Amino acid sequence: METGTMISLAGYFIVMLGIGLYAFKKSTSDLSGYMLGGRNLHPAVVALSAGASDMSGWIMMGLPGAMFVSGFSSTWIAVGLVAGAWLNYFLVAPRLRVYTEKADDSITIPDYFANRFADNRNILRVISAVVIIIFFTIYTSSGVVAGGKLFESSFGLSYETGMYVTTGVVVLYTLFGGFLAVSLTDFVQGCIMFLALIVVPLVTYSLLDQPMPATLTEISPDMLSWLGAGSVLGIISALAWGLGYFGQPHIIVRFMSIRRVQDMPTARCIGMSWMIVAALGAVATGICGAAYAYEKGIAVEDPETIFLILSQVLFHPLVAGFLLAAILAAIMSTISSQLLVSSSSLTEDFYKTFVRREAGNKELVFVGRLSVIAVALCAIYLAYDRDSSILDLVSNAWAGFGAAFGPLIILSLYWKRMNLAGAIAGMVVGAATVLFWIYAPVTINGSSLSSIIYEIVPGFMMACVAIVVVSLITRHPDQEISDLYDEVEQSF
């Protein structure tokens, strides 16, 4: 590896660990500070933290890889995500910030569900915590896979070494700095990603020998088609990625941490501007990379490494190090967020609820740190399958959360008649439908269900139906729950 690249990456790691140390000194004295930053984050930090934790390795590797292979037909994924993110900021963010504070200062999503529906037997809390831990372990493993591929492709290290280095640095600053460290590092990482996703496609495009459409047509006529070789159901599946936003705990928990709800429009403006540029940059990287690799005869064995290849081929080692740091930023920002949310569920929703109700803040923070390590080790174990596709792992977890939590979050914020039975039914049906769609040995004309239409579509629809039907055929919510809903409604 070039000395300049090493210097850039070493500087990046030092900055991340330094932020973790700063956050450790500032905000980890109690569980609320460790898990939610004391609900006092600046809107810019919230916006870029939400964006960076959302746009994981898939924005730098997964989406460019899909564009490299399929052309413009994969752009629908970006379109769906941008639309979903905007609706999430508009529909979910303000109400969730108010509701979680009024609902007994809920600091986790399962905590909010339990308080919102007076789940005294903790049924909903346990189910939602199990869903978070299962799907986040899968989701986190996608970041570990991306880290392994990055170090193997760029640094000449083994895939396994890459996994441990990536996860090790993330665990260190998450372990000690908690939510504040995760949010501040996400802010810095979001800035790095933003610059990288502008620079790489612009430079690549400027170095093409002939107009890009002509080159793409030579690769395949489908590269320029918005439909590609797929179908209308394929476009619906791509757009449906946007539905997942409403149920992603590592994203919506950012909304709970903003210092006041009046700051939400500022956060939305910053966050959506960042996301639109990042999504366009990822799309352009894949398309321009396909044209450049074809023209120059560059063999690309793994399409998901096209950003890595362009960084190394086109730029000075110092700049290449910065660009590789951008990929690490994308990977690490999401891993840290997922580790923290999983840790918070294990601590708040299992340990405190069932093991030691009287546990003090120091004990809970300690358990939270142990949970970070445990989830990280499970993710590393799953990531040993080096053939795993980053985008496939992300899509499965994204659909699971989107279907299990999305309808539940939206209806809990806007429908007063929704009750505990409906919430449980919706979560179970949504998660079960997604798992069935992915793993059931059922085919249609030789094609698996998930290859026909993205599993989040049937999962989201079935969850909505289950919530509405079960809520209507069971008893009304208690008066206390209705009064809480009315109190939140009066805030808007």
UniProtKB/TrEMBL annotation:
Its membrane topology: Multi-pass membrane protein
UniProt keywords, alphabetically: Amino-acid transport, Cell inner membrane, Cell membrane, Ion transport, Membrane, Sodium, Sodium transport, Symport, Transmembrane, Transmembrane helix, Transport
CDD domains per record: SLC5sbd_PutP
Any single GO BP term: proline transport
Source species, domain of life: Bacteria
InterPro entries reported in the protein's UniProt record: Na/Glc_symporter_sf, Na/Pro_symporter, Na/solute_symporter, Na/solute_symporter_CS, Sodium:Solute_Symporter
UniProt KW Cell membrane keyword: yes
Pfam families noted in UniProt: SSF
Molecular-function GO terms, alphabetical: L-proline transmembrane transporter activity; proline:sodium symporter activity; sodium ion binding
Catalysed transformations (reactions): L-proline(in) + Na(+)(in) = L-proline(out) + Na(+)(out)
Main subcellular location of this protein, as a coarse class: membrane
A Gene Ontology term for the protein's cellular component: plasma membrane
TM helices/strands, residue ranges: 6-24, 75-92, 123-142, 162-184, 191-208, 223-246, 267-294, 306-331, 364-384, 396-415, 420-440, 452-473
Locations listed in the record: Cell inner membrane; Cell membrane
Key word 4Fe-4S present: no
Similarity field: Belongs to the sodium:solute symporter (SSF) (TC 2.A.21) family.
NCBIfam families the UniProt entry points to: Na_Pro_sym, sss
Free-text function comment from the UniProt entry: Catalyzes the sodium-dependent uptake of extracellular L-proline.
The protein's name in its UniProt record: Sodium/proline symporter
Taxonomic lineage from the root: Bacteria, Pseudomonadati, Pseudomonadota, Gammaproteobacteria, Lysobacterales
